[in-house]
Amino acid sequence: MGKGYDYRTNRDEIHWHNQGARVRLCAVNKRPPPAKKLAPPEFARKVLAWYDQHGRKDLPWQQNPTPYRVWVSEIMLQQTQVGTVIPYFERFIVDFPSVAVLAAASEDAVLSRWTGLGYYARARNLHRAAKLIADEHGGQLPDTVAELTSLPGIGRSTAGAIVSLAGKRYAVILDGNVKRVLARFAAIEGWPGHTQTLKQLWALAEELTPRARVGNYNQAMMDLGATLCTRSRPDCQRCPLVDACQAHQIGAQTDFPGKKPRKTLPVRSVSLLMPVTQAGEVLLEKRPPVGVWGGLYSFFEQDKRSAGEWCLDNLGALPASIEQWPGFRHTFSHYHLDITPILLRLEQTAPQSVAEAGKLWYNMRQRPDVGLAAPVQKLLERLALAYNV
Length: 389
Fold this sequence. Notes:
Blueprint: E1 4-7, E2 13-18, E3 21-26, H1 40-54, H2 67-77, H3 82-95, H4 99-104, H5 107-114, H6 121-136, H7 145-148, H8 156-166, H9 176-185, H10 195-208, H11 214-228, H12 246-249, E4 267-276, E5 281-286, E6 297-298, E7 300-301, H13 307-315, E8 321-324, E9 328-331, E10 336-345, E11 359-363, H14 374-386
Parallel strand pairs: 4-10
Antiparallel strand pairs: 1-2, 2-3, 4-7, 5-6, 5-11, 8-10, 9-10
Helix pairs in contact: 1-11, 2-3, 2-8, 8-11, 9-11
């Protein structure tokens, strides 16, 4: 298993592995003293005492923590770091200050504010849920975990965060940071994505979560994972749980939680056609509502036709010139996409016949309010420089 450990609590021995070569060290009666046992009330007391002195209390969504603001922040924070989320959250709340305003907005407007944040299904689900809340719940977020999890994009942990952080009522959470803290504290083996491991983590979270000050406790657990019990370089000496942490006791903090089984990502290739008029208008198309970049505007993917043939068939004229730009790679969670941009310089102005549903002449001088895939946004920025707009 490479460099690491194989610790068995039911036998007095430790097996060490070093790059595939296994060395067995007998350690009968020489095991390190066991980690302290913490009863749930003492666990919560230590966590809350640390939070009172060191916890984060000045994040934007912690100011006036309404259910709506907590909901938006929790969705944005899924698989995204706090520092990245803050400016997006602040702009989003200015433009969509309530469920009613968000529900009434167009999908393009919502995706536009999400551009660059990634994982766009989160934004689409947020918008869908806002419409359901407006239509079926009188514009007010439900106040129970069961009702919240019936809405698109809200899982058990997100619902727990909304109920406890905004409603100050008992609910358990288990986001990525909390999983890491608990997996190390109890040396729970296995990748949290596996059903059995996840069940163990939820059971421990339920056992330890107090009913008093539950909002502060849940925030503290997230803060511990984000600031001290980090993925690669945990700051154990500053952790209030260090004396009772089983992973720390055996010197294997970074082995918990278990890693996701690694897969070799497949590679796909695509050529993106970028028709641009002399006035700096770029033809884009809106992608289908589901799938990669769902609902976002993107360039056209080249099919079997040549770039010139495509231009003639779709715009009624050949381009003045065709220029292939250097390719680059964009990586999704499940595959690599090698992108080759092809610039089609057009002599004519934007043909009105192309202004049909799902297509847009994007004016780089007066940028419309639409959602863009991250690689498309980068290419548009390069085009703006090339056309001096």
